[in-house]
Amino acid sequence: MSDLEIIIYPLLKKFFLYPGIVFSDGQLWQKQRKFSLQHLRNFGYGKREMEQKVIEESKELIENLKKNCSKPIFMHQAFDVGVLNVLWTMMAGERFALDDARLIKLLKIIHDAFRLIDMSGGLLNQMPFLRYIVPNTCGYTQIVNILTRMWEFLEDTIAEHRKTVCSSYARDLIDAFLHKMNVTEEYDSTFNDEQLLSLCLDLFMAGSETTSNTLGFAILYMLEYPDVQKKVQLEMDDVVGRNRWPNMQDKINLPYTEAVLMEIQRRANVPPLGVAHRATCNTNLYGHLIPEGTIILTSLYSVHMDKDFWRDPMAFKPERFLNEHGKLVVPEWHFIPFGYGKRRCLGESLAKTNYYLFFTAMLHNFHILKVPNDTELSLDGYDGVTISPKPFKAILLSRND
Ligand code: HEM
Questions:
Q1: Would you say residue 26 has pLDDT above 70?
Q2: Whose alpha carbon is nearest atom 3 of ligand 1?
Q3: Is 345 annotated as a binding residue?
Q4: Domain architecture of the chain: domains with CATH
Q5: pTM
Q6: pLDDT digits (tens, 9 = 90+) for 250-270
Q7: For residue 271, which phi and psi values (nearest 5 degrees)?
Q8: 278 CB near ligand 1 (under 6 Å)
Q9: What is the DSSP string of 293-312?
């Protein structure tokens, strides 16, 4: 540590607590995580209601896609709005139309933000003073512009809630937070305006890009591996039949489909470095001293691409998640797309429900085909906080014709 860091670090630690949930730690994080989970559950998170909402969203998306059957259409961002709607209903009590111009603009902003930096924070994290010297070149101006637009949107939503909130019941997570801010007994100063805005921003960012990118990759892999697509469809035809929509109860009887979903997550590594955390005390990890305050990045990519365990990690082989009887096997320590331990993804249940129900709905309804002579198609994505599929088109053929 330099002399400057020795002086500055304790001050930073004392006065600079990161708000929100993703980058906070200590008591603030504990309280916010507990509060968010508890209240999201009150609005259906992890329950049958949530499944129903996802099914409704997937039905609307499929109907919309059917209008463009048999034509090449862009698919890399097809799931953005549907996926976000379920979370937004629990957070803010409303959903967006699939063609809502304001939301599409916002989602584009998030995509751009996730491309501009990576989880290590990039150049700005190593040399934060650059923002005063070359703010445009180092990306600082762009990040501030993006965040300002996000904040404006969320501030408007919160202001609208403030005008209409009713003290006797909460319509959504924002209402519940506003109630908590106004509680006089057991008053807790960490429930304040800044924290509400940061919590909304964190959930909005964490909840949209990750799932829609994973679904985008899922479609790409089905284009690249038509035999796998066919096997998933046959398994679903056998278990679900052709006369109803796939649901969460079918999952247990669809081990091949589940193995395909897992293999896509393993191979695509959408959040390659998880989320950056900070060691809150001096820690000894297998003989390595990690000083308090060190920023820790967990390379989920290295776990999923570990040659010693997976043997041929580059190969796309859903069967690696099945045993000789065709039953699903999940190697606990070697498959961790949602992280591990106390900081494990807060949205895992919603993410898994969205991922499974949107994917099965797509394959249940469509044959997904490559556009003839498409030379651009690539399983490589764009780098950033999350890996995202590069823009691609597919042709959807209805399976019911
Ligand atoms: C396929 C989709 C998703 C993937 C792959 C994913 C993955 C992850 C990963 C790897 C982490 C870091 C875990 C760690 O630090 O060890 C994380 C954290 C987090 N995720 Fe997700 N996530 C997904 C969807 C969601 C959704 C839908 C939400 C919205 C509710 C969400 C909210 C969060 C939050 C709030 C955290 C921070 C948790 C904490 O630090 O306590 N995620 N996610």
A1: yes
A2: 210
A3: yes
A4: 3-398 (1.10.630.10)
A5: 0.93
A6: 999 999 999 999 999 999 999
A7: -100, 90
A8: no
A9: T-EE---HHHHHT-HHHHSS
